[in-house]
Design goal:
Catalyzes the NADPH-dependent reduction of glutamyl-tRNA(Glu) to glutamate 1-semialdehyde (GSA). It contains 16 helices and 10 strands. The protein is an alpha/beta fold. Helix 5 packs across helix 7, helix 5 packs across helix 14 and helix 14 packs parallel to helix 16.
Length: 431
């Protein structure tokens, strides 16, 4: 099995494509089960955020795995596979490991250095664990991915460039308003993870008064209590829109929350930050007098938040070292079944020779047979010890996968190919 990551992000697709690809929380388990039911896919983890949808998979073949995953994403999104292919990026083998570590470190984020992706990766991993779609290879990858992300943020200043997509969106809002946000009234629509992040960021920016609404009023009330904001009933949304300067929309709704009908009678200038995928603001809102909509496409076009070169270089160095370590683990894992097969072969030879000896010398007592058997086992173990230790060391080095193949050929070992979700991985190339 080998690693394959396939996805679309703000770099390769606009919001219209991303919102069709987006996978809501309740949809994740069923999609994971569909993925691992494909012929070439043994394991799968799905990451779906406001600006990326990715599948990390353990596959038994590159082209087969690529086709299987593309077909599932095509069926889910309703985008024909040949059209979808133009929006996807693909990483295989070592490149897939590097990509996952760069994502967790914030290097691949729209706002370079943002830490929110770590929580999103953690949620994706937990979802895969719950439906048992992550086997040995993805368990190791995701655990190391989360660790590398934490290390990058702890050891460098990568997150100084921008804390989140919300931060970047508020920077654009400040430009449109012409002044800082202090004292500006705001409304946050949605009380989930992105809504909570929006409330926290707005509070730090000095925005106020701040109101929160959500279809579940209890969630809005709990969030409002934490930040000294005011929870308002969702039914009062249109009225509150006429009373605020800034709106941040971050719901999990599959349909637009801010429709043209709700916004056309606002009666004053209003900046709307649409941070949801699918979009919370209806497309026909564009062009309404006084309404400025900042969405994921706007943020991608701005590309305004970048860390200094030294911070980026420091994280890239961490990622490069961690990729090497992970690949060494992969190579060591690949040699393990071959070494085990060699030891099993040796044990079989000892057992066969003992049976021959007993048939020729039936007068041997049980004690004598035991002495001979233990002596033979010790001789075999001593002969195998140094070669097997050394081959594990060599296998951990670049190109070390050749040693497993040599052992199998020299000793005519029958090592089953890795075809199941829990099988030992093999090293592959990049695509």
């Amino acid at each position: 099995m080998n690693l394959l990551s396939i996805g679309a992000s703000y770099r390769t697709a606009d919001v219209a494509v991303l919102e069709r690809l987006a996978i809501s929380g309740p949809e994740v388990p069923e999609l994971l089960q569909r993925l691992v039911a494909q012929p070439y896919v043994g394991e799968a983890v799905v990451v779906s955020t406001c600006n990326r949808v990715e599948v990390y998979a353990a596959v038994s073949g590159f082209h087969g795995g690529l086709g299987d995953i593309c077909n599932v994403l095509s069926e889910h999104s309703g985008i024909p596979a040949n059209e979808l292919a133009g929006h996807l990026y693909v990483h295989y083998g070592e490149a897939a490991v590097q990509h996952s570590f760069r994502v967790s470190s914030g290097l691949d984020s729209m706002v370079v250095g943002e830490a929110q992706i770590l929580g999103q990766l953690r949620d994706a991993y937990h979802a895969a664990t719950e439906v048992d779609s992550a086997g040995r290879l993805l368990h190791e990858l995701m655990q190391q991915t989360l660790r590398v992300g934490k290390r990058a943020h702890a050891e460098t200043g990568i997150d100084k460039a921008g804390q989140s997509v919300v931060t970047a969106a508020l920077d654009l809002a400040t430009e449109h308003l012409g002044t800082d946000l202090s004292g500006r009234s705001a409304l946050v629509v949605g009380a989930g993870a992105m809504g909570a992040l929006s409330v926290a960021t707005l509070t730090r920016s000095g925005v106020g008064p701040l109101r929160i609404t959500n279809r579940s009023h209890e969630r809005a009330a709990r969030l409002a209590e934490l930040y000294g904001a005011t929870a308002v009933p969702f039914e009062d949304l249109e009225q509150v829109l006429r009373e605020v300067d800034i709106v941040v929309c971050a719901t999990a709704s599959t349909e637009p929350v801010l429709t043209r009908a709700r916004l056309e009678n606002v009666g004053h200038d209003l900046v709307v930050l649409d941070l949801a995928v699918p979009r919370d603001v209806a497309p026909d809102v564009a062009g309404l007098p006084g309404i400025v909509v900042i969405d994921i496409d706007s943020l991608a076009a701005s590309r305004r938040t970048h860390p200094v070169a030294a911070e980026t270089a420091a994280v890239e160095q961490i990622v490069a070292g961690e990729v090497d370590s992970f690949l060494a683990w992969l190579r060591g894992a690949e040699i393990a079944p071959t070494v085990a097969a060699l030891r099993t072969r040796a044990e079989d030879v000892v057992a066969a020779e003992m049976r021959k000896l007993i048939s020729r010398r039936p007068e041997f007592t049980e004690e004598q047979r035991g002495d001979v058997s233990r002596t033979l086992h010790r001789v075999v173990q001593q002969l195998l010890h140094s070669p097997t230790v050394r081959v594990r060391q060599l296998a951990a080095e670049p190109g070390g996968d050749q040693y497993a193949a040599l052992l199998r050929q020299l000793f005519d070992l029958d090592v089953p190919l890795a075809t199941s979700a829990n099988a030992v991985p093999e090293i592959g190339g990049n695509a």
